[in-house]
Automatic annotation (TrEMBL):
Origin superkingdom: Bacteria
Pfam families: Aldose_epim
Name the UniProt record assigns to this protein: Putative glucose-6-phosphate 1-epimerase
Signal peptide region: none
Catalytic site positions: 147, 249
Keywords: Isomerase
Gene Ontology molecular-function annotations: carbohydrate binding; glucose-6-phosphate 1-epimerase activity
Top EC category: isomerase
Enzyme Commission number(s) of this protein: 5.1.3.15
Keyword Glycosyltransferase included in the entry's annotation: no
């Protein structure tokens, strides 16, 4: 894998290149901002209005959500990891490794930890894996997600396969519980769901395009698209951007991870 440091949209990034594919990873948040497989077609959505000055999370790419998903806890919405400077630690086993260490001084989540994000790239495949070590002396609990913003041409033509039969919490309808009866998930308004116990691989379909999505370690899948009305209220999205992405997140939300001293948790998402 060829690695160099570049400025992308004005923010310092590590660029990964192999077999004709390229990925840009921002040191801010260890966030993959761009992924172009060898066919040269960008697969991730990154908002033109994304903020890169650290004052907010970067809207798009693959934000790392840790140690709190959404507002399920006393800490920052979607956790602090997406707003921290991570360290590029080099390449190990063909994957670029980024680390973030906590010394327990964070008031909202006061636990020592070491997080590693491993990013592997192939001609047509991207794999992102999060590892968390408990480096302290007491157990801690956390929730997490790889919040992938997958780029589409028109959300109304998009379908997700692989969730039929799964139960989900509908966050856009007050957290009510439902079962996915239809074979495909499609989008016609705000969609914000947490599917649990997902085992089948997923696929994002749009016309002739298909993106396969696999996950391991993570038990849940979050599907999010703000729809037109919520999109209009999100400052770092353009009014039409809701048409341009579907978030399919490998997540561990409904059953928090509990990690004892010296233990490690791992979860990953592969796209391709
Ligand atoms: O605006 P944020 O903090 O990046 O969150 C975006 C969305 O992230 C999704 O994961 C949540 O399910 C949504 O409820 C939320 O709106």
């Amino acid at each position: 894998m060829h690695i160099d440091t570049v400025s992308f949209r004005g923010t310092p990034c590590i660029r990964l290149q192999t077999e004709g594919a390229t990925a840009m990873v921002s040191l801010h948040g260890a966030q993959v901002l761009s992924w172009m497989p060898a066919d040269g077609r960008e697969r991730l959505f990154l908002s033109e209005r994304a903020v890169f000055d650290g004052s907010a999370a970067i809207r798009g790419g693959i934000p790392v959500i840790f140690p709190q998903f959404g507002e399920r806890g006393a800490g920052h919405r979607h956790g602090f990891a997406r707003n921290r400077a991570w360290t590029f630690a080099g390449v190990e086993n063909e994957a670029a490794v980024f680390t973030l260490a906590g010394d327990g001084s964070n008031a909202d989540w006061p636990y020592p930890f070491l997080a590693r994000l491993r990013i592997g790239l192939g001609a047509g495949r991207l794999r992102v894996a999060l590892e968390v070590d408990n480096t302290g002396a007491t157990p801690f609990a956390f929730t997490a997600a790889l919040h992938s913003y997958l780029r589409v041409d028109d959300i109304v033509l998009v379908a997700i396969e692989g969730l039929q039969g799964c139960d989900y919490e509908d966050s856009a309808a007050g957290g009510t519980l439902h079962r996915q009866h239809d074979y495909e998930v499609t989008f016609d308004s705000e969609t914000d769901r947490i599917y649990n116990d997902v085992v089948a691989p997923l696929a994002l379909l749009e016309g002739a395009h298909r993106l396969d999505i696999e996950q391991d370690g993570f038990g849940d899948v979050v599907v999010w698209n703000p729809g037109e009305q919520l999109c209009a209220r999100i400052a770092d999205l353009a009014p039409d951007d809701w048409k341009r992405f579907a978030c399919i997140e490998a997540a561990q939300v409904l059953q928090p991870v509990v990690l004892g001293p010296g233990e490690t948790w791992r979860g990953g998402q592969a796209l391709g």
